[in-house]
C-alpha cells in the first residue's frame, strides 16, 4: 500500500483504524449475515415493511423495487403518525412529506415538502426514472405526481388533526425539535415508535444478485415550520447507496444529520474499512463533536449494510431500533447508543 493511501486511511479511521472486521463482529450484537438477500430498516415498524420488501427480494427482483414496496406499508398506515397518510402536520396544519430513493447505479430521486399524496416514495421513484432531475419540491412535486396518475388526497387524519390542535394550545406557534417532549412530557408521547415527535422509515436492502438499494420516507418533524425539509429526502444525508461499498440511512433530528451529510459519511467510513456498526458510531460521534451539549438532548440513529451482507446501527440515545430480515433472521434489534 502506498504511503499516501496509508495516510488517508489512518486519518479517516482515527482511533478505530486497527479494528479489523473480524474483531468488530466479535464485539457486535449483530449477526454476520452472509446469505443474500437482506433488508434492514429503521424502528420497530420496519418489521412489517421488511416483510413486504422480502416478498419482492425472494422473487429475485431488484433491491430498489423491494425498498419501494417495503416503505409503502407505513406510508399507507394511518396509525403511523410519522410517515405518509396520517402523518402529523406542520405548524400550519399541513401534512408535508419528504422521501427519496436510490438504486445500484447511483440513480436517485427525491421529493420534498410534497402534499396530498400518500406514496411519496413512488413519486420520488418517478422523479428518478422519468425526469432529468433528482429533486422536485412542493407544488412542483405535487403537479408532477398528479400528471403521472396519482390522486389528490387529504392526508390529515382526525387523530393527527387532534394532536395538532392540542399542540396549538401550548406551542405558541413554535416548532419543536427535541426528544425531551417539552410539550407532552415523556409519558405522553404523541407518536408510536419512540420518545419523540418524529420517526422516519429508512430502508436499505441487498438483492439476490448482491446489488443494493435504499428508500427513506417521512412526514418529518411534527409541527415544523411550513416548508421545512429534513435530512430524509436529501441524498447523502438521510440515505446513500454506493453499490461498491454499502448503504446507509438515518432517523432523528434531520438538521444534525444534514450538517455531517450523515449517510454518505457512514458509507465512506465503510469504504475505508469500518464495519457497518462502527461506521454508524463514528458518524454519531461526529454529531457530538460539533455540539456536545446539543447532542445530549436529541436523537439521531444510523443504520447501514455493506456488500458482505453485514449490518449494524448506532444512535445518540437509547431507544433506536432496527428491523432486520434475511434468510436466517426476522427481528427487531435495539441499537447501541452513546448516551
Ligand atoms: N429525520 C426526520 C426529519 O428530520 C425525522 C426523523 O427521522 O425522526 O425530518
Q: What does this protein structure show overall?
A:
There is one protein chain. With 339 residues, this protein is of the alpha+beta class. The chain has a single domain (32-166, 177-337), classed as Glutamine Phosphoribosylpyrophosphate, subunit 1, domain 1 (4-Layer Sandwich). The protein has eleven helices and 13 strands. It has helices at 3-13, 21-27, 46-57, 63-76, 120-130, 138-147, 158-171, 254-259, 262-271, 276-290, 292-295; strands at 38-42, 97-102, 108-114, 135-137, 201-206, 212-218, 239-242, 246-252, 300-306, 311-315, 321-326, 330-334, 336-337. It has an eight-stranded mixed beta sheet with strand order 4-3-2-6-5-1-11-12. A hairpin with a 5-residue loop joins strand 5 and strand 6. Helix 3 (46-57) packs antiparallel against helix 4 (63-76), helix 4 (63-76) runs antiparallel to helix 5 (120-130) and helix 9 crosses helix 10. The longest helix has 15 residues, at 276-290. It is globular, with a radius of gyration of 19 Å. It starts with a helix and ends with a strand. The model is unreliable at 1-27 and 179-196 (pLDDT under 50). Aspartic acid binds next to strand 8. Aspartic acid is lined by residues 198-200, 218, 220-221, 230-232, 251-254.
Summarize the structure.
The protein is an alpha+beta fold and 339 residues long.
Topology:
Layout: H1 3-13, H2 21-27, E1 38-42, H3 46-57, H4 63-76, E2 97-102, E3 108-114, H5 120-130, E4 135-137, H6 138-147, H7 158-171, E5 201-206, E6 212-218, E7 239-242, E8 246-252, H8 254-259, H9 262-271, H10 276-290, H11 292-295, E9 300-306, E10 311-315, E11 321-326, E12 330-334, E13 336-337
Bound molecules: aspartic acid.
Amino acid at each position: 500500500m502506498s504511503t499516501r493511501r496509508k495516510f488517508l486511511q489512518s486519518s479517516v479511521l482515527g482511533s478505530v483504524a486497527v479494528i479489523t472486521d473480524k474483531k468488530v463482529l466479535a464485539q457486535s450484537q449483530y449477526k454476520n449475515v452472509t446469505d443474500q438477500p437482506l433488508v434492514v430498516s429503521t424502528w420497530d415498524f420496519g418489521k412489517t415493511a421488511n416483510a413486504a420488501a422480502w416478498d419482492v427480494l425472494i422473487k429475485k427482483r431488484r433491491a430498489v423495487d423491494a425498498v419501494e414496496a417495503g416503505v409503502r406499508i407505513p406510508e399507507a398506515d394511518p396509525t403511523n403518525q410519522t410517515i405518509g397518510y396520517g402523518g402529523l402536520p406542520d405548524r400550519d396544519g399541513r401534512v408535508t412529506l419528504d422521501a427519496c430513493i436510490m438504486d445500484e447505479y447511483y440513480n436517485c430521486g427525491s421529493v420534498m415538502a410534497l402534499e396530498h399524496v400518500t406514496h411519496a416514495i413512488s413519486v420520488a421513484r418517478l422523479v428518478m426514472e422519468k425526469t432529468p432531475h433528482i429533486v422536485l419540491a412542493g407544488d412542483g412535486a405535487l403537479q408532477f405526481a398528479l400528471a403521472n396518475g396519482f390522486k389528490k388526497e387529504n392526508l390529515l387524519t382526525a387523530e393527527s388533526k387532534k394532536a395538532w390542535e392540542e399542540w396549538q394550545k401550548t406551542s405558541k406557534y413554535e416548532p419543536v425539535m427535541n426528544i425531551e417532549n417539552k410539550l407532552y412530557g415523556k409519558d405522553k408521547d404523541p407518536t408510536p415508535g419512540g420518545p419523540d415527535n418524529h420517526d422516519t422509515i429508512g430502508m436499505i436492502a441487498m438483492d439476490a444478485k448482491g446489488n443494493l438499494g435504499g428508500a427513506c420516507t417521512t412526514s418529518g418533524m411534527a409541527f415544523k415550520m411550513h416548508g421545512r425539509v429534513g435530512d430524509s429526502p436529501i441524498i447523502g444525508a438521510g440515505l446513500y447507496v454506493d453499490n461498491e461499498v454499502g448503504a446507509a440511512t438515518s432517523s432523528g433530528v434531520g438538521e444534525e444529520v444534514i450538517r455531517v451529510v450523515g449517510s454518505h459519511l457512514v458509507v465512506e467510513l465503510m469504504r475505508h474499512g469500518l464495519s457497518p456498526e462502527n461506521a454508524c458510531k463514528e458518524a454519531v460521534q461526529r454529531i457530538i463533536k460539533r455540539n456536545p451539549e446539543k447532542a445530549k438532548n436529541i436523537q439521531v440513529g444510523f443504520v447501514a449494510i455493506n456488500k458482505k451482507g453485514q449490518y449494524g446501527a448506532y444512535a445518540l440515545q437509547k431507544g433506536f431500533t432496527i428491523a432486520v430480515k434475511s434468510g436466517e433472521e426476522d427481528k427487531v434489534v435495539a441499537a447501541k447508543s452513546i448516551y
